[in-house]
Amino acid sequence: MSEQTRQRRRRRAPRTPLLIAFLALAAAVLVVLPGSGFAQSEPNAGQQAKQLAVFSWWTGGGEAHGLKKLITIWNKNHPTVPFKNETVAGGAGSNAKAVLAQRLAAKKPPDSFQGHAGAELQDYIKAGQLEPVDSIWKKFKLRQVIPQQLISQITYKGKLYSVPVNIHRANVLWYNPAVLKKAGIKSVPKTWAQFIAALKKAKSADVIPLAVGEQWTQMHLMETVMLATIGPGRYNALWKKGGNWDNAGVKLVLNRYRDLLGYTNSDAASLTWQDASKLVSDGKAAFNIMGDWADGYFRLDLKKKPKTGYGWAPVPGTTGTYLWLSDSFTLPKGAPNRSAAVEWLGFLGSKRAQDTFNPAKGSIPARKDANPKLYGTYLKWALNQWKTNKLAGSLAHGVVANNAWKTDIDTALGLFLRSKDVDKFQDALATAAKRRAA
Ligand code: GAL
Which has the closest alpha carbon to 163: 326, 335, 377, 387? Predict the structure, then answer.
């Protein structure tokens, strides 16, 4: 080595630690930058995206149409970053959530996954599995167009953790108008007494009075009975710390629920929600209580006309309350194609994406500025209800109880469906609430 080179190196040497210190400082600033949302310090931040892997349970009847529309737009706009549709079949995420939990535990997340706004999303946040997405919200000014009630469900310690794509209504009574006519049910029941009278008439007319499917659909049914029986104020209070499950109101809920099960099909456990809806549309059942994804199924899969092929009303006793839930999408930590996921979330928040997805999915947009003209007869009704109704959050779809609490309820429900023992069920529900309410 020449003396000249040695001198050059000596001159450069003192700069190296300085440079390292500077880079370390810059990295630290990126990690802690308040409100920066998704910090560039994430492992895959600067990498070129090869694809966009999105995890959901929207595989088929009534569920996949909306997603398909989004995929078409995505692939057209991102020819080098194709959409990889990672779906796991099973309504309400009954199978998907377990698969997702395994992937997250193994640190093999998709680029973005479906998570219900509310307690379910908070689980992922508290487990440290999600990145905040405040920057996306800021860039697309989403705070101005998403309702505050929804924002509060996806915020944790002041940061936002997902982009909601829709709002679903859970408390819908679907019916077959021709079957009601045949059974002599002159008007759609509004009160509980009218509902029971209508179910009796359907039974006499030799049709299934109330179609249900696998267990999660029965939990869905149960939450609507809770809302109908004790009203939104007491329903909402049950999910707060100290909520009182050990009272006459809840007892009445469970007795009514048990009675209702007496009007349902005996093969429920082996039917999907689509199977149960189809019983109504085929004229084999009079009623079904399901979320409004059924609207997409009746219309697009079964090609039925609203009002004549299928009808709807609030679940008896729940007029004026929107039992809501929202599908939102996330940015998991360690998303392999992070830049594509960030782009996807921005797209999902857009008016174009929401007004394309929701008319097909059977949901109203999370944004307040949707164009109602693009929505069908049922969804126009739902858009109006959303504006005026009180709100209550869904249990079966992740709003009011986290996964642990919901699992406790589901276990107790499974036992109840066999024993029909109301007292034991109520005890189990009260115990679960004491254990789990945060
Ligand atoms: C809900 C979900 C809806 C719909 C439904 C039936 O949990 O939020 O988008 O897919 O399950 O699977």
Answer: 326
Q: What would the pLDDT profile of 359-394 be if each residue is shown by its tens digit? A: 999 999 999 998 999 999 999 999 999 999 999 999
Residue 252 identity: L
Tell me the pTM: 0.90
Q: Return d(Cα 396, Cα 220) in angstroms, integer.
A: 5
CA 428-434-436 angle, to 5 degrees, is 95
- Beta strand residue intervals within 31-82, DSSP E: 52-56
| Residue minimizing CA distance to atom 3 of ligand 1 | 92
Nearest C-alpha neighbor of 246 from the set 430, 40, 418: 430
From the alpha carbon of 291, which atom of ligand 1 is closest? Answer: 5
pLDDT tens for each residue of 70-126: 999 999 999 999 999 999 999 999 999 999 999 999 999 999 999 999 999 999 999
For residue 291, the CA-to-ligand 1 centroid distance in Å is: 8
**Using the 8-state DSSP alphabet, how is residue 306 labeled?**
B
Residue 33 in this model has a pLDDT that exceeds 90: no
Q: Which residues line ligand 1 (CB under 6 A)?
A: 57-58, 63, 91-93, 116, 168, 273, 291, 293, 325, 327, 397
For tokens 């440079």, name the residue.
19
Best residue for ligand 1 mutational test, from 68, 121, 162, 293 (most atoms within 8 Å of Cβ) = 293
Q: Choose one of 292, 363, 397 to mutate for the ligand 1 pocket test, by most ligand atoms within 8 angstroms of C-beta.
A: 397
Residue 271, helix vs strand vs coil: coil
Sheet holding 172-175, edge to edge: 208-211, 285-290, 172-175, 311-314
Residues linked to residue 163 through DSSP beta bridges, in sequence order: 329
Cα–Cα distance between 360 and 62 in angstroms, integer?
Answer: 8
Amino acid at 292: D
How far is residue 364 from each of residues 56, 183, 245, 253, measured CA to CA in Å? 18, 33, 32, 29
* CB 38, CB 127: distance < 8 Å: no
Q: How far, in Å, CA of 420 to CA of 414, rounded? A: 10
Q: What six digits make up the tokens of 228?
A: 């109908």
* Cα(216) to centroid(ligand 1), Å: 11
Q: Kindly tell me if the per-residue pLDDT of 1 is higher than 80.
A: no
> What is the pLDDT, as a whole number, of residue 415?
98
Residue 310: DSSP 8-state: B
- C-alpha span between 272 and 214 (Å, rounded): 6
Give the span between the Cα atoms of 199 and 222, in whole angstroms.
Answer: 17
